[in-house]
Each structure stands twice: as structure tokens, then as C-alpha cells.
Specification:
alpha+beta, Rossmann fold, Dna Ligase, domain 1, D-amino Acid Aminotransferase, Chain A, domain 1, 3 domains, eight-stranded antiparallel beta sheet, five-stranded parallel beta sheet, 22 strands, 28% strand, binds ligand MV4
């Protein structure tokens, strides 16, 4: 087992990883920017090293500084959390070259998944259902029109270097195909330095359902239930739950097996997530594979009663997994509490938290680095807390979440708590009637 893990991240996830390391008897090193000197991860880690000024580009993304911090402190592994360098092939390779275990994917795996057309071809070959579309990249406008006619409109064109909602375009009419291809190629070239574009049938009003998987260093895999992440706004998830209200036992088995085929196709080691689009007929299609621990891993932990960070560290250290699949035993929901004003287009609201009281009671978990007197720096993403509830049924979990939200007091900054309270009072949401378009039509009442 590792003796000392450096956490190359900040905020709640840095704290989350430190907690598990402590329970496993592993020493921890926090790295921090000048803006995070007073943060809880810095306080709770065994050691802390300042790696630069506030901007991420000069601290949490600065590979030489992080590697230097690991060398100075003699850390034998680096946990990258999510975001920042967690899916950076170059960083994974540099860790490898410096004989520091990167607790994440191998550089080749990250590269293979990063090019979406290549990833899709790999998955299709492995028998993972994919959205019908072009075989590889579109050659030119004529080719695009030909494929659009074959698969039928509407179609979606996607930049192969895009992902997470960047570099996509829907086309409804055949006469618009050629110009849309020109536009998206130009955008992709500017944004990613790669103008490769492929085409798919546009799936209208899909659900976003993802499967948590794990694979060890001996080629054993398991699936660990799904998460429904359809409640998103501009590709930012706000609420996640498991089981999905749309799931059936047979669909879970089919999607779980497909997710394992996806992971096995790239010899995946570690915990990962395979994202699918699910249409109204419960057809499902591969979308992306995430080779990191995700923000929403918590709800899976609640329903299968496993610490996923612990599993991640054990797998990285070469400990085998059993290979048995996990069924959800409970219902869990997570609300992301962001320092944003939901009444003004979710604009960021950084600043000092003057009063802080977090909810508690049976089945309530709060993962946060916030406290009374903490100042949220403007330099990073605006998530300050994750409120997670678990209960026997979805109905109970919804009531529990509403109760917990009503006890949550954060003064000094605007938060998304009022949005969540109204969402958990919405009849269609309560019935489980939602797709990825749900929040497009959701209007908050004044408060
Ligand atoms: C799609 C789609 C419909 N049809 N692909 C958005 C993020 C990126 N990973 C893929 N995305 C989509 N791909 C086809 N063929 C709709 C989306 C999409 C979406 C997917 C999941 C969650 C929210 C979404 C919001 C808008 C569009």
C-alpha cells in the first residue's frame, strides 16, 4: 500500500480524499494556491505545500510545481480528484516517468478516450451500443449530406476533440448541413486546434444515465449501479440520483454489461464512469467514458455502501476486486450547492460566508470544505458543498432532501439552495418525469 499520497486538487474533493487516506493509515500531502492557504484540506493534511498564486494555470494546473511538491515530500502516489489534471494524459505520463503512481488512467487510455470519434469506434467494435452516424470523421460537405440523408434528420455534428457539451451542433434541415459543418469545423479548429467532426442521429429529449464501473490490474471488472444526471443546466449537473427513476432491472443489467465491455475494451484499471444517452424507448447509446472519480460518486457510495475513493486507492496499489456486481440497496440523491444566484441566471457569487449551519439527521451527508468565516475565492468553480441524502425509497429521499435543504443556512453569498427547494416541490420532478431538457423550461418563482 502507498505510504504517502499527494492530493493534486482543492476544495471538498481534496478533503474527501484526505479523509479516506487517514482511515487507511496513509499519510497525506495537500498542495494549495495562495488563495487556499486557509482551507480545510491544508489544515487536515499531514503536510501542505504552496504551489503558486491563485490562478489555476499557475498552481493546480502547473505540473512541474506539483511534481516538485511530491518529490520534496516523498509522496509515492498522486490523487488528482476531478477536473484540473485528473484526465490529463501528459500529467499521467509525467507521474509515470517520475515513478509516482497516478491514481487515475494511463496516458494511452486518456488519449484514446479524448478523441471522441476514435473512442466511439473502439466502443462500437467492442459491442457497446453507439448512436447511428458517420463511420469516423466527415470528409467534406457532400459526405455530410450523404450521411445525414442515410441516417435521417435531425442530426448532431460533434467535434472529435470536444466533449462535455463543447463543439456540438444540431441540424434539422438537409439544406443547413453543409454550412453547419463549415461553422463547427472553424469553431473546433479555434477551440481545440483540431477540426475533425463526425455526425450522429440527434436523440431528442434523452436522459443522461451513467454507469459506475471498476476494473483492477488483473482484468476483473464490475458495475456498481447507475446515476441519473439528467437535471443539468448548460452542461452543469445540479442534481444526481440513484437508482434512476427511469431504470428497470433488465435495463440495468444490459447497461452494466455494456459499460464493462467499454472498460474492458481499453483495459481500464481503476474506478470509472461510462455515460449513456437513453431515449424514451429505453434504447441506450454510449456517449463518453470518464476516467476519474466524479463529483457525484457520493450517491453510489450511499446505495452500495462502499467507499469509492478507498476502492480507487486499493486498485491503484494492485489489490484485486471480487468481480461481483452491485445492486442499489437504497435511494440516494445529491444536490450541488453552488455559490451562484439562481434568480439571476446562476451568476457566480463568491465572497465571505458569514453564517453557516449545515443540515444533519438520519440519512443526511454533507461533503464540503466550507465553514463560517470561510471566503470563497473567485478563481475556481463555484461548488461549495454537496448535500446527499439516502433513504429506503425515492419518495422518502425527496422528502428528506427538502427537509435538509430547509435547514441549510449559508449567509453572505447567494447559493443554489432556493433553486433546489423549488425543484424538490415540482410535481413532474417528484414523479420522475424529466429528461436533459427539464431545466430549459423550469422557471423559478420569486422569493
Ligand atoms: C447528444 C445529444 C443528442 N443526440 N448526441 C451533450 C454532452 C456531450 N457529452 C454529448 N451531449 C449530447 N449528445 C446525440 N446524438 C444530446 C446531448 C446533450 C446532453 C447530453 C447529456 C446531458 C445533457 C445534455 C444536454 C444537451 C445535449
Amino acid at each position: 500500500m502507498f505510504k504517502k499520497v499527494l492530493i493534486a486538487n482543492r476544495g471538498e474533493i481534496a478533503l474527501r480524499v484526505i479523509r479516506t487516506c487517514k482511515e487507511m493509515g496513509i499519510k497525506t500531502v495537500a498542495v494549495y494556491s495562495k488563495a487556499d492557504a486557509d482551507s480545510l484540506p491544508v489544515r487536515f493534511a499531514d503536510e501542505a505545500v504552496c504551489i503558486g498564486p491563485a490562478p489555476s494555470s499557475e498552481s493546480y494546473l502547473k505540473m512541474p510545481n506539483i511534481i516538485a511538491a511530491a518529490e520534496i515530500t516523498n509522496a509515492d502516489a498522486i490523487h488528482p480528484g476531478y477536473g484540473f489534471l485528473s484526465e490529463n494524459a501528459k500529467f499521467s505520463r509525467i507521474c509515470q516517468e517520475n515513478k509516482i503512481k497516478f491514481i487515475g488512467a494511463l496516458p494511452e487510455q486518456i488519449e484514446g478516450m479524448g478523441d471522441k470519434a476514435t473512442a466511439k469506434a473502439t466502443m462500437a467494435k467492442a459491442g457497446v451500443p453507439c448512436v447511428p452516424g458517420s463511420e469516423g470523421l466527415l470528409k467534406d460537405g457532400k459526405h455530410a449530406v450523404k450521411v445525414a440523408k442515410e441516417i435521417g434528420l435531425p442530426v448532431m455534428m460533434k467535434a472529435t476533440a470536444g466533449g462535455g457539451g463543447k463543439g456540438m451542433r444540431v441540424v434539422w434541415k438537409e439544406e443547413d448541413v453543409e454550412k453547419a459543418l463549415d461553422d463547427i469545423k472553424r469553431e473546433a479548429k479555434a477551440a481545440f486546434g483540431n477540426d475533425g467532426v463526425y455526425m450522429e442521429k440527434f436523440i431528442e429529449e434523452p436522459r443522461h444515465i451513467e454507469i459506475q464501473i471498476a476494473g483492477d490490474q488483473f482484468g476483473t471488472f464490475c458495475h456498481m449501479s447507475e446515476r441519473d444526471c439528467s437535471i443539468q443546466r448548460r452542461h452543469q449537473k445540479l442534481v444526481e440520483e440513484t437508482p434512476s427513476p427511469f431504470m428497470t432491472k433488465s435495463l440495468r443489467k444490459k447497461m452494466g454489461e455494456a459499460a464493462i465491455r467499454a472498460a474492458a475494451a481499453v483495459n481500464y484499471e481503476g474506478v470509472g464512469t461510462v455515460e449513456f444517452l437513453v431515449d424514451k424507448h429505453r434504447n441506450f447509446y454510449f456517449m463518453e467514458m470518464n476516467t476519474r472519480i466524479q463529483v457525484e460518486h457520493t450517491i453510489t457510495e450511499e446505495v452500495i455502501t462502499f467507499d469509492l475513493i478507498k476502492e480507487q486507492i486499493k486498485i491503484a496499489a494492485g489489490i484485486p476486486i471480487s468481480g461481483k456486481n452491485y445492486e442499489p440497496k437504497m435511494h440516494a440523491i445529491q444536490c450541488r450547492i453552488n455559490a451562484e444566484d439562481p434568480l439571476h441566471d446562476f451568476r457566480p457569487s463568491p465572497g465571505a460566508i458569514t453564517v453557516y449551519h449545515s443540515p444533519g439527521g438520519h440519512g443526511v451527508r454533507v461533503d464540503t470544505h466550507a465553514y463560517a468565516g470561510y471566503t470563497i475565492p473567485p478563481n475556481y468553480d463555484s461548488m461549495i458543498s454537496k448535500l446527499i441524502v439516502s433513504a429506503q425509497t425515492r419518495e422518502e429521499a425527496i422528502k428528506k432532501m427538502h427537509r435538509a435543504l430547509s435547514e441549510y443556512i449559508i449567509d453572505g453569498v447567494k447559493t443554489t439552495i432556493p433553486f433546489h427547494i423549488q425543484l424538490f416541490e415540482n410535481e413532474e420532478f417528484k414523479k420522475g418525469n424529466f429528461t436533459t431538457k427539464f431545466l430549459d423550461d423550469f422557471k423559478m418563482k420569486p422569493i
